[in-house]
Write a structure and sequence with these properties.
single chain; mainly alpha; 71% helix; 0% strand
Amino acid sequence: MTARLKTCAQLIAGLLPALVAAAPAKANDALLANDCASEIATYCSKVSPGQDRIVACLIAYEDKIAPRCRLSAYQASGNLDERMKALRGFTKVCSADILQYCSKTAPGGGRIYDCLKDKQATLTDDCRKAVPQFDKLLAD
């Protein structure tokens, strides 16, 4: 690596945390609408807005979207990371219940979560306690 390239890499590494810090949700929506309109229309037009789904869609197509849109998507992804951590925690707490009560339920579209809600009376205590917390997470 040349000295110039190394200096540029260090500068970018130093500035990156400031550039990708998550902005408030409304500001993120405006930023994405401004910076990613064509990408959203091309790649994410069938994605239901809310709960950071548009951000997740844009990140899934990061190799195809413009650099400005990619940066905006990463700026908006802070909340997505929190949601993913909560989802992993929820699935860990409820994994036995999912296997026992919802193993024949097709994944996607919230069907497994709906199955757990339908079987709430028979869930383990920990999973039953996690369902209302997950309801809050799903709210916009």
